[in-house]
Amino acid sequence: MGRISERLIRQRAEHNEGMVSTLEEVALHQQNIEKIELLGQLCPKLKILYLQNNLIGKIQNLHKLKELEYLNLAVNNVTKLQNLQRCESLKKLDLTINFVAKAGLLSVESLRANIHLEELYLLGNPCSDWPGYRQYVVAKLPQLKKLDGQAIKPSERIAAAQALPDLEAALLGELRAEGVDVQAAGAVEDDSLYDETGAAVQDVPETGYLDDKGELVRPWCPATRLLEHRELEAANREAEDKKRAAAAQPSPLDSGPQKPPRHEAFPDISDTDRIYQKNEGRWDFSLEESPDGNSLVLEVGVGRFLDTSLIQTDLQPTYVRMLVKGKLLQLLLPCEVRPDAARAQRDMTTGQLVITMPKEDPSKPVVDVSKLRPRVPGTSGIATATATTSAPTLASPAAGGGQPTGGGGGGVGAVRVPGISAGRGGGGGAGEFTLKEVRRAAVTAVEGGDEDGDDPPDL
């Protein structure tokens, strides 16, 4: 149910800078309002009031609007004209398409107190179907100049005044014949849908009935309007609740790719697990055949200043895995390789990590070329001969620990990469690779950072 509130009035008073005490015009149409309230207290200077297309069933709480000149209550649930006697400045009243019945004509006389009333609209009300409707209203309200948009001529006014006694007798006779309590109809409206304060009651009785086809048929009346409005309001609330519930659950399409968790060690893979391609760190890499066709060459752009201690490698005959700063790069190989004979190097200038993996059977060409990723798209997938450094292989120190041997500010050093394991083959069980690395200066690794830019770190 819509209510007239101070906030609503201020929203509608933008042209008056939100000031309601001096407001002279306000439009409150199509707000589902069921009761007129607060206007007399908040807006005593109102001259024009638009309340059309609401659910108002009773004209009330307007007696303090002494300067009100135009009241629009079209398309509401009004059944009687009342409570306007103190609106001394009222000039125009629009009650088009309401529910003022033939018995409601008895309440028209209450507008005699509005001596400035010039225009009245009752078109679309049931009372306008009565044959003597126009003459009756013209005779009862001699101050009117227009009724339903048509000017009242002096001759018409004289004729209406002469016919008034007969019209009153006919109207009262018809109402009594219909069983209407004439005295009650002229004094008190039928407010079965409203309580003593004029507010709509919470439980509106069902007005419809089932026809021969089993369909619900409702007559056009104030109760029907209230029922249909509240049913529509409930349906809208339910739809909004469903919409909010759906919005509270993020969609995979809307939320985008989820940030993968950091890995402290390689995830376990059983013999029955399916191996998927993964690149959680979005590293730039290429996987190609060597120029002689005897090996596969994997080149990964891990960044120039990334410390080797943050790189772990696991090479198996059919796949290779790398953990770079806790992010997994997992690739299926297009053919079987020999992990025990593999070699790992880092480029002297760019820091690129290059892993050369000899094939198990060099005589067999790579058939599954879909698993290859050439460095240059559209090429054959053959690695260039200058992909890696030509630094000589040095023996690893007894306690490398991921740090380069030797002192000073740089040079060629062999390091033992922690966590590198070979899948099979001889050569010592542990299967650790020897990684040749060139360093310009000792660089301290930042364990928690995600960015590996080419700019040197702060000193």
UniProtKB/TrEMBL annotation:
Cross-referenced InterPro entries, in alphabetical order?
A: CS_DNAAF11_C, Leu-rich_rpt, LRR_dom_sf
**Which Gene3D superfamilies does its entry note?**
Ribonuclease Inhibitor
Tell me which SMART domains the record gives: LRR_SD22
User: Ribosomal protein among the record's keywords?
Assistant: no
Q: Where is this region: Disordered?
A: 235-273, 358-413
Low complexity composition-biased segments? 377-398
Q: Which family does it belong to?
A: Belongs to the tilB family.
Protein's UniProt name: Dynein axonemal assembly factor 11-like CS domain-containing protein
Q: Which organism is it from?
A: Pleodorina starrii
Gene (UniProt): PLEST009498
